[in-house]
Amino acid sequence: MTDPQYYAAIDLGSNSFHMIIAREDDGTITVIDRVKEMVQIARGLSPEGDLAEDAKTRALDCLACFRERLAEFPASSVRAVGTKALRSADNSDFLKLAEQALGHPIETVSGYEEARLVYQGVSHAIPQQQGQTLVIDIGGGSTEFIIGRQYQPLLLESLSLGCVTFSQRYFGQCSNAEAMRNAYLGACAELEVITSSYLDSGWDVAFGASGTIKAVAETIAGSNAYIDRQRLEALYHHVAANGIEDDGNLTKLRREVLPAGIAILKAVFDQLQLENLHVADAALKEGLIYDIVGRLGDRDVRDDTIANLSKRYQVDIAHAQRVSQLATQLLQELPLTPEFHKLIHPQKLLHWAAMVHEIGLSVAHNDHHLHGHYLLRHSDMAGFSRLEQHWLAQLVKLHRKKLPITWADNLPKNLATCLVCLRLAVLFHRNRQTPAFDIHIAADNGSLVLKVERLADYPLTLKNITLEQEYLSPLGIELKIDVGDL
To answer: Which of 355, 338, 357 has the alpha carbon at shortest distance from 302?
Structure first.
């Protein structure tokens, strides 16, 4: 038996911050500790994306407490992600402060990725069905809807339905009954975009995963296992008439946002024609644990995403693999600096970029690097943080032709090194064959020295490399050529 391994997942949601500690022992994952605080950063977020000082303080104080629990964890065993509110926040200084408070990098993930992680957590926590499963997660700033079969999501969507944001939007000066009605109608309007496709796909069982759904189940049934239409309807009308009573089972912050959550849930039941909803005791944070285990093992969902993109856009896989092999070899021969963002692994990012650098050819040959950039920027990419997706798209955009003169200031140094390796690997494979000569690179007093055996025997390649010397100048990179024998 191997020694148990420990992992930590932190979900920085719009309503609550969650942290779980899990142990993996011979393939079995067990949650051994949970910490939760209703920070409600969505309540402190302005329409312009600024975060109020009191919300910042609540968030940073919570993260400092989390940090104490994480003191003995290696960085590879910890993942922290921010969802809707952090996606909307324009205040980059807050993210830096949050990372300092937590002591670990924080990813912001897309709504699509948020939905995938929710399904990952729920699907591992419920009995496996032979048919399809619908999963619903009502958060503070968004609600995720997923239909999947066993561990594989089939439909994923994230809508701007949140118990905190809807509380702010609808529960102001008007009566509680009117606010409930307006919130319900607002949720119905948001749901219209997915109703048809989800009903057409269908499901055999439905699960809800969130603090809001658990609170509703506890209120109507005295347990957190099940919600049925009849009792949800009764609760909705009771709250519209009387508000939420303080029975000692709900915190003040939960009571404040629960009416909006009930209105959203009633809209979900009506639009998706639900009769009942089981409650799952897992969500995004549990999904993060399974993702960490996969990345540290032999299964990284990001590799699957790249493979799927390559297949969808009919990439020449053999050619892409040859480019990747040379690019990663060159990168291994160069020093990397510690300034590169902790969330980005240069070797992996370079490999992924090489594998999809030609996806733009599916649109047009001319400027295919620009088409590839667009496809990557706007694709739903399972497993990728928004930052990883951004830099991957940038590498593909810049892998050929002239570089913008402003990139010397905008490109992180290690990413510039990755870009040089990718551009050279693409250049040496222009004939789509493995080069007939050895290629190496070395750093020398701030310059890069490219060593190519018998380069003088290949005048076209020599001409292209000479042109590349000029192209790399906007990066502040001096490329020297050594054509001597290796």
So the answer is: 355
